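Input record, target 12 of the design panel.
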């Protein structure tokens, strides 16, 4: 396929780390949905969504 997309430079370090795990091409190294939801970046996003509701 076309390879891994470029991660935006202006994204936070946690955001870059999160995307790194999302975009991992090797299924053995790629995180599961549960692991991704447990990542600090996802937790902050969930908190922001909860505040808006």
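The sequence produced for target 12 reads:
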């Amino acid at each position: 396929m076309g390879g891994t997309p470029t991660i935006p430079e202006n994204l936070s370090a946690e955001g870059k780390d999160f995307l790194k795990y999302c975009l991992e091409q090797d299924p053995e190294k790629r995180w599961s949905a549960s692991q991704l939801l447990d990542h600090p970046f996802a937790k902050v996003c969930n908190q922001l969504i909860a505040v808006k509701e």
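The two ends are 39 Å apart (CA to CA).
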